[in-house]
Amino acid sequence: MWPIGHVAVAYLCYTVATRARFDAPPAHVPALVLVLGSQFSDLVDKPLAWYLAVLPTGRTLAHSLFVLIPLTTAIIVLASRYDRREYGIAFSIGALSHVLVDVTPALWGVRESATHLLWPAIPVEEYEQGPPTILALLQDSLGQPFFLSEFVFAAVALVLWRRHDYPGLEPIRAAAGRVWPTPS
Protein backbone atom coordinates (compact mmCIF):
# COMPACT_ATOMS: atom_id res chain seq x y z
CA MET A 1 0.00 0.00 0.00
CA TRP A 2 1.10 3.54 -0.69
CA PRO A 3 1.51 6.25 2.00
CA ILE A 4 -1.88 7.84 1.36
CA GLY A 5 -3.62 4.50 1.81
CA HIS A 6 -1.79 3.82 5.06
CA VAL A 7 -2.72 7.25 6.45
CA ALA A 8 -6.33 6.82 5.36
CA VAL A 9 -6.79 3.37 6.90
CA ALA A 10 -5.03 4.47 10.09
CA TYR A 11 -7.26 7.55 10.35
CA LEU A 12 -10.39 5.45 9.84
CA CYS A 13 -9.28 2.94 12.50
CA TYR A 14 -8.34 5.70 14.93
CA THR A 15 -11.62 7.50 14.35
CA VAL A 16 -13.50 4.34 15.30
CA ALA A 17 -11.31 4.01 18.41
CA THR A 18 -11.82 7.61 19.55
CA ARG A 19 -15.55 7.43 18.91
CA ALA A 20 -15.82 4.20 20.89
CA ARG A 21 -13.75 5.47 23.82
CA PHE A 22 -14.57 9.19 23.99
CA ASP A 23 -17.49 9.72 21.60
CA ALA A 24 -15.32 12.39 19.98
CA PRO A 25 -13.22 12.80 16.86
CA PRO A 26 -9.42 12.54 16.99
CA ALA A 27 -7.59 15.38 18.75
CA HIS A 28 -4.89 17.46 17.03
CA VAL A 29 -1.61 16.08 18.37
CA PRO A 30 -2.69 12.42 18.46
CA ALA A 31 -3.75 12.78 14.81
CA LEU A 32 -0.22 13.88 13.92
CA VAL A 33 1.28 11.03 15.93
CA LEU A 34 -1.08 8.67 14.10
CA VAL A 35 0.27 9.85 10.74
CA LEU A 36 3.82 9.18 11.93
CA GLY A 37 2.80 5.72 13.16
CA SER A 38 1.10 4.93 9.86
CA GLN A 39 4.37 5.56 7.99
CA PHE A 40 6.80 4.25 10.60
CA SER A 41 7.41 0.77 9.17
CA ASP A 42 8.23 2.09 5.71
CA LEU A 43 10.34 4.95 7.07
CA VAL A 44 12.51 2.38 8.83
CA ASP A 45 12.55 -0.58 6.44
CA LYS A 46 12.66 1.00 3.00
CA PRO A 47 15.86 3.06 3.53
CA LEU A 48 17.57 0.20 5.37
CA ALA A 49 16.77 -2.24 2.55
CA TRP A 50 16.82 -0.06 -0.55
CA TYR A 51 19.70 2.32 0.13
CA LEU A 52 21.82 0.79 2.89
CA ALA A 53 21.22 -2.90 2.01
CA VAL A 54 21.22 -4.00 5.65
CA LEU A 55 17.78 -5.63 5.43
CA PRO A 56 16.72 -8.25 2.87
CA THR A 57 13.59 -6.33 1.75
CA GLY A 58 11.60 -3.20 2.47
CA ARG A 59 9.23 -5.25 4.63
CA THR A 60 11.19 -6.88 7.42
CA LEU A 61 12.36 -5.32 10.68
CA ALA A 62 9.70 -2.64 11.33
CA HIS A 63 7.02 -4.73 9.59
CA SER A 64 7.62 -7.71 11.90
CA LEU A 65 5.19 -8.31 14.74
CA PHE A 66 8.21 -9.48 16.77
CA VAL A 67 9.37 -5.85 16.67
CA LEU A 68 6.10 -3.93 16.43
CA ILE A 69 4.22 -5.49 19.32
CA PRO A 70 6.97 -4.86 21.91
CA LEU A 71 7.69 -1.44 20.39
CA THR A 72 4.09 -0.24 20.42
CA THR A 73 3.60 -1.63 23.93
CA ALA A 74 6.71 0.23 25.11
CA ILE A 75 5.54 3.44 23.41
CA ILE A 76 2.14 3.23 25.12
CA VAL A 77 3.80 2.59 28.50
CA LEU A 78 6.29 5.44 27.99
CA ALA A 79 3.60 7.84 26.79
CA SER A 80 1.42 6.88 29.77
CA ARG A 81 4.29 7.67 32.13
CA TYR A 82 4.27 11.25 30.78
CA ASP A 83 0.46 11.49 30.86
CA ARG A 84 0.28 11.23 27.06
CA ARG A 85 -1.20 7.75 26.73
CA GLU A 86 -3.33 8.80 23.76
CA TYR A 87 -0.17 9.60 21.78
CA GLY A 88 1.04 6.04 22.33
CA ILE A 89 -2.32 4.61 21.33
CA ALA A 90 -2.43 6.77 18.19
CA PHE A 91 1.10 5.72 17.17
CA SER A 92 0.28 2.07 17.83
CA ILE A 93 -2.92 2.11 15.81
CA GLY A 94 -1.06 3.74 12.93
CA ALA A 95 1.87 1.31 13.03
CA LEU A 96 -0.21 -1.84 13.45
CA SER A 97 -2.79 -0.85 10.84
CA HIS A 98 0.13 -0.32 8.42
CA VAL A 99 1.38 -3.89 8.64
CA LEU A 100 -2.09 -5.41 8.67
CA VAL A 101 -3.07 -3.52 5.53
CA ASP A 102 0.17 -4.59 3.87
CA VAL A 103 -0.89 -8.25 4.13
CA THR A 104 -4.30 -7.67 2.52
CA PRO A 105 -3.07 -8.57 -1.00
CA ALA A 106 -1.77 -11.90 0.36
CA LEU A 107 -5.25 -12.66 1.65
CA TRP A 108 -6.61 -12.03 -1.86
CA GLY A 109 -4.12 -14.47 -3.38
CA VAL A 110 -2.05 -11.81 -5.12
CA ARG A 111 1.67 -12.72 -5.41
CA GLU A 112 2.28 -11.17 -2.01
CA SER A 113 3.27 -13.03 1.12
CA ALA A 114 2.64 -12.33 4.78
CA THR A 115 5.88 -13.92 6.00
CA HIS A 116 7.32 -10.49 6.83
CA LEU A 117 4.98 -10.36 9.83
CA LEU A 118 7.08 -13.09 11.48
CA TRP A 119 10.53 -12.06 10.22
CA PRO A 120 13.21 -13.14 11.21
CA ALA A 121 11.62 -16.39 12.49
CA ILE A 122 10.29 -16.95 8.97
CA PRO A 123 12.67 -15.77 6.22
CA VAL A 124 11.45 -13.42 3.50
CA GLU A 125 12.24 -13.61 -0.19
CA GLU A 126 15.10 -11.25 -0.93
CA TYR A 127 15.15 -8.96 -3.95
CA GLU A 128 16.29 -10.85 -7.04
CA GLN A 129 17.62 -7.86 -8.96
CA GLY A 130 18.03 -5.24 -6.28
CA PRO A 131 15.38 -3.04 -4.71
CA PRO A 132 12.48 -1.85 -6.88
CA THR A 133 12.12 1.71 -8.08
CA ILE A 134 9.14 3.85 -7.13
CA LEU A 135 8.08 3.90 -10.79
CA ALA A 136 8.28 0.11 -11.05
CA LEU A 137 6.20 -0.25 -7.89
CA LEU A 138 3.62 2.18 -9.25
CA GLN A 139 3.39 0.39 -12.60
CA ASP A 140 3.05 -2.95 -10.84
CA SER A 141 0.25 -1.58 -8.65
CA LEU A 142 -1.90 0.16 -11.26
CA GLY A 143 -4.29 -2.65 -12.17
CA GLN A 144 -4.57 -4.17 -8.70
CA PRO A 145 -7.88 -3.83 -6.82
CA PHE A 146 -6.12 -3.18 -3.51
CA PHE A 147 -4.31 -0.23 -5.12
CA LEU A 148 -7.56 1.27 -6.32
CA SER A 149 -9.16 0.70 -2.92
CA GLU A 150 -6.61 3.08 -1.41
CA PHE A 151 -8.30 5.98 -3.16
CA VAL A 152 -11.68 4.94 -1.77
CA PHE A 153 -10.22 4.77 1.74
CA ALA A 154 -8.51 8.13 1.18
CA ALA A 155 -11.74 9.75 0.00
CA VAL A 156 -13.72 8.47 2.99
CA ALA A 157 -10.94 9.49 5.40
CA LEU A 158 -10.73 12.95 3.82
CA VAL A 159 -14.49 13.47 4.23
CA LEU A 160 -14.25 12.41 7.90
CA TRP A 161 -11.15 14.52 8.47
CA ARG A 162 -13.02 17.55 7.13
CA ARG A 163 -16.10 16.71 9.21
CA HIS A 164 -13.83 16.47 12.26
CA ASP A 165 -12.50 19.98 11.52
CA TYR A 166 -9.08 18.83 10.26
CA PRO A 167 -7.47 17.38 13.40
CA GLY A 168 -3.71 17.77 13.27
CA LEU A 169 -3.76 20.83 11.05
CA GLU A 170 -3.84 23.43 13.84
CA PRO A 171 -0.43 22.52 15.35
CA ILE A 172 1.08 22.64 11.86
CA ARG A 173 -0.45 26.07 11.22
CA ALA A 174 0.80 27.31 14.59
CA ALA A 175 4.32 26.04 13.92
CA ALA A 176 4.30 27.54 10.43
CA GLY A 177 3.14 30.86 11.90
CA ARG A 178 6.14 30.87 14.24
CA VAL A 179 8.52 30.12 11.37
CA TRP A 180 6.87 32.44 8.83
CA PRO A 181 4.97 35.11 10.78
CA THR A 182 2.30 37.03 8.95
CA PRO A 183 3.44 40.52 8.04
CA SER A 184 1.56 43.25 9.91
Characterise the protein shown here:
It is a single chain. The protein is mainly alpha-helical and 184 residues long. The chain has one domain. The chain is built from eight helices and no strands. The chain has helices at residues 3-22, 28-51, 65-81, 85-102, 104-107, 134-141, 145-163, 169-179. Helix 1 packs across helix 4 (85-102) and helix 2 crosses helix 4. The model has no long low-confidence stretch (mean pLDDT 91).
Keywords:
184 residues; single chain; globular; mainly alpha
Terminal CA distance: 44 Å
Order of helices and strands: HHHHHHHH
Shape: globular
Largest sheet, if any?
Answer: none
Oligomer category: single chain
- The mean pLDDT is 91
Q: Please bin the fraction of helical residues.
A: 55-70%
Number of helices: 8
Number of strands: 0
**What is the CA-based Rg, rounded?**
18 Å
- Total discrete domains: 1
Task: List unreliable stretches of 5+ residues.
Answer: none
Structural class: mainly alpha
The amount of beta strand, in percent, is under 5%
GO molecular function: hydrolase activity
InterPro entries: YdjM-like
Protein name: Metal-dependent hydrolase
Organism: Natronorubrum aibiense
